Amino acid sequence: MARKISDTKNAPAGDEPGAGAVVHADAGHAEAADKGEKLRDKAYLRELKKLHVELVTLQQWVVHKGLKVCIVFEGRDGAGKGGTIKAITERVSPRVFRVIALPAPTDREKTQMYGQRYMPHLPAAGEVVIFDRSWYNRAGVERVMGFCSEEKARGFLQTIPLFERLMVDSGIILLKYWLEVSPEEQTRRLQARIGDGRKTWKLSPMDLKSYDRWDDYTKARDEMFAATDTSWAPWFVARSEDKKRVRLNVISDILKHVPYKKAPAEKVVLPKRKIGRYKAADYPFRYVEERY
């Protein structure tokens, strides 16, 4: 299962950011590697089907009760964020589950209050919004790669817990996931993108520039956790050495943290229909060539 950053059993009382004991995710790599072989496709698809059924049930409950759910995914390059998000959304309605993956800010957006461009995408009633990277860009890539000053990065870490408190107090269920991968597995995945024509689009110039900044990203991650792992918006870490396992674990964790029941619904029965009252036109349709 996904592992919570804060140890709530041992955390001191109060709602201060970073009150919980910060667990360094790197310490879990050796343990994860000892779990044995990766999950086989048959077992993965069997469990994923069960979870997809539950996600549909959750979706119907979110719409029925007007819940507002916001899920943030962060992590290193190659950690599996995109595949995990795809596994979550492939069997639900895109009108309810909206995925937000914003490009680099425009010149106009750079002059706005930081975070302003994310606010229009926050969920309204009956929506689940998934951020494939989020306002935490400022604590990660922007800070490490020098796209913002250290002063702005520290200011962000001070103010973002207050912003997230406003979100939660407004009724938004906020879940924040960090996908953690070992340097060895990250290298393997990035290398695989180079030689696979289906994945070359995933390897950006920024990925290559960031590759040699492992320690800088680790430091930025630790400071981000210490400042923003709050009782009202805690971080959850999911080990992603095995892509299939992390997808199942994260979906299970979402289902655990969003309260839902089966929404009331009428039994669906296909109505009777009559065919043949209209004769189709003899039209020269352009059929797709059947090559397979």
What does this structure look like?
- The chain has 10 helices and 6 strands, in the order βααβαβαβααβαααβα.
- The chain has 292 residues and is α/β, with parallel strands linked by helices.
- The protein has one domain: Rossmann fold, CATH 3.40.50.300.
Question: Could you outline the blueprint of secondary structure elements for this entry?
Answer:
Blueprint: E1 3-4, H1 29-33, H2 41-65, E2 68-75, H3 81-89, E3 97-100, H4 107-110, E4 127-132, H5 141-144, H6 150-169, E5 172-180, H7 183-195, H8 205-210, H9 214-228, E6 235-239, H10 243-257
Parallel strand pairs: 2-4, 2-5, 3-4, 5-6
Antiparallel strand pairs: 1-6
Second rung of CATH, namely the architecture: 3-Layer(aba) Sandwich
CATH topology: Rossmann fold
What does the largest sheet look like?
6 strands, mixed
Strand order of the largest sheet: 1-6-5-2-4-3
The shape, in one word, is globular
